[in-house]
């Protein structure tokens, strides 16, 4: 079993000493102000420009993780957690959870400003979902971003941000054929 799969199954911490379950318990403030966890929560097959400690998943690790239902469940739990923190009320067909009492919609949050780092995180999430063959969830999130976020908050989100989300969603991974 790979070290990264062990992390994603909450069996071992990342180099910062955090388990995935620790990240799921971040407060809104921790989620927004901690800048080296998102790469572990949503791994990619390309090197992060923002964190030297970020994992780069390879074909063997991805194949092993795709075969594990608990890994996929944990990825979907991470997606739900991130969407809650961003104030996104995405209706996923496969994620059946109640929003927390502290849930606040996007426009009620403090972070929505032009060029916010969360916009880059959203691109990472879209790419990760596609990498892990979670195409339905990626499509549901992309539809939400286009129809419920950008269409209403175009001046805050910006066209460049929408284009980066579309690029992340449409980009073909180097590991796309892993199974």
Characterise the protein shown here.
The chain has one domain. The longest helix has 18 residues, at 69-86. Helix 7 (117-131) packs antiparallel against helix 8 (135-150), helix 7 (117-131) runs parallel beside helix 10 (159-170) and helix 8 runs antiparallel to helix 10 (159-170). With 179 residues, it is mainly alpha-helical. The chain has ten helices and no strands. The mean pLDDT is 85.
DSSP E strands, number: 0
Count up the domains.
Answer: 1
Alpha carbon gap, first and last residue: 16 Å
Mean pLDDT: 85
How many strands, what sense, and barrel or not for the largest sheet? none
Low-pLDDT segments, ≥5 res = none
Sketch the topology as an H/E string, one letter per element: HHHHHHHHHH
The helicity comes to 40-55%
Question: Which overall shape is indicated by the principal axes computed on the Cα atoms?
Answer: globular
Topology:
Elements: H1 3-8, H2 20-24, H3 28-33, H4 38-41, H5 59-66, H6 69-86, H7 117-131, H8 135-150, H9 154-157, H10 159-170
Structure at a glance:
By secondary structure, this protein is mainly alpha-helical. Helix content is 53%, strand content 0%.
Q: What key attributes describe this structure?
A:
179 residues, mainly alpha
